[in-house]
Amino acid sequence: MRRLMVIGLDGATFRVLEPFAKEGIMPFLGSMLARGSRAVLRSTDPPYTGPGWSSFMTGTNPGKHSHYDAQRRTLDFKGLEPVGYHTLAGTTLWDLAAEAGIRIVLLNMPMSYPPPSLNGIVIAGALTPPGTVRYASPESLVQEIEREFGRYALDVSWASFDPSHRRALLDDIERMLDQHERVFLWALARQRWDLAVVVFVTPDRIQHGLWHCLGVDGPVAPGDEPTRDRIHAIFARLDSAVKRLVDAAGPDANVVIMSDHGFGPLKARVDLNNLLADFGLFAFKGGRRLVDTVGKRLHAMGLRRSHLATALRTLGASGGFVDRLEGGNRLQGAGSVTDWGRTKAFCLMTNGIFVNLAGREPEGIVSPRDYEALRDEIIERLGDVRDPHSGQRIIFRAQRREEVYSGPYLEYAPDVVITEFDERYHFHFFPYSHYTRAFNPPGRATGNHAYEGILLGAGPDLRTGPMPQARIVDVMPTLCALLGLEIPAEVDGRVLEGFVRAPCVPTSATRGVSARRRGLAPGEQEALERRLRGLGYL
Ligand SMILES: [Zn+2]
Prior knowledge:
Radius of gyration: 23 Å
Number of helices: 17
CATH topology of the largest domain: Alkaline Phosphatase, subunit A
Shape: globular
Largest sheet: 10 strands, mixed
Number of strands: 21
Bound molecules: zinc ion
Helix content: 25-40%
CATH class of the largest domain: Alpha Beta
Mean pLDDT: 88
CATH architecture of the largest domain: 3-Layer(aba) Sandwich
Low-confidence stretches: 301-307, 309-314, 316-327
Number of domains: 2
Distance between the termini: 44 Å
Structural class: alpha/beta
């Protein structure tokens, strides 16, 4: 078995990398494109970081690993919780590799917190609670890293993507890229390894706020040229970091470069709860005007019911009042303005709509008898949604969840999922903001996630040339084939025969190894929720 290095580029797309390679901004990526194999890598439904990397790690669809978005329904259906390694169900590539005695270096993978103890070292990535000092495994590594490189950046600290602060954001992104490259090279030299998985979030963090300054959809607006040049310099910096990692792997290693989802321009945000209100299926408490006022005020205060409960507990309070703050219907926190008694359907996740089903939802009103008819109605009406300005249809397909997902966590999936749509529109919900209509301007973001990501490979066991489109669930079994690992029966993907020269490994009849996952410490969930708000997820 040869060394295998996987480099993840969060949000990378050929729409950006191809012109950047052609223009000489990313010469190393250009050489990979010329000498290796490549495919469009289709992301999950929805094409987001939470489900995307989780489906990479496990080779399964979200119905099996349970991550449909950056948050998931709690198992009692009453609340939402940020996803992480502690909530990921199923066997990961490195669970299997560690079991087989393969030495591993796992660096900066989103949702790898709490870091598992593997046969090697782990430094957790995005969606790690800010401020934690337990982000590495073995834990003693944290001290070594901070002594050598200073305070470790778990993510960009300036993440509100305010265009007036673009210089601060780009400074922050570049500083983090620089530190991560040095830490990653240090880790690869410090630990003997057979499998290295390393992720850079640079493309995602730039593209969200500054897609319009990339210069890939035509010339940038007058005045944006300095930002464009700065962004090109950071992508060039990323290219040289990737080259140094590949050099560190050595000439005999197999190298795979991939993304969790693609990217493109953002035209409008569609608030699905307001859209459902237009359908007469969602009701705001006191109407939309009140939502405007209350939402704005709560947003300004940054207040949430769970935060208040945490604060009270810290002060030593306990008993029924605090329990009530945390308990009951925790779906949308203090920002909740939902009139549950008059709401038949609601959005809680990207591209996903839940039926307010009696017996399942905390304040459900839809009888199970009416469930299918209501799903049919939602699907039909979504297909008729048109942009009020252009008059164009924007949702081409919405499906019942069982048509999209399968597995033991299917019951936590949204009942209706938007699966084909104009990718310039972002379909979500905004409990802490104050939209009073379905269609809203993009706000501070100008980039949007898209289905088509990237897959590149080069090395002795990999073929060359273009390949048909692959799915993100196919990557894990393909890497298993390269590492000589048996593929667990629950894996949904298949070995990409056009990608690897390695002989196909039989699928194991047994389920994957059962890995132990550490839970979160007190306060870490709240820290993660604040982080998700900073990233614009909440
Ligand atoms: Zn991502």
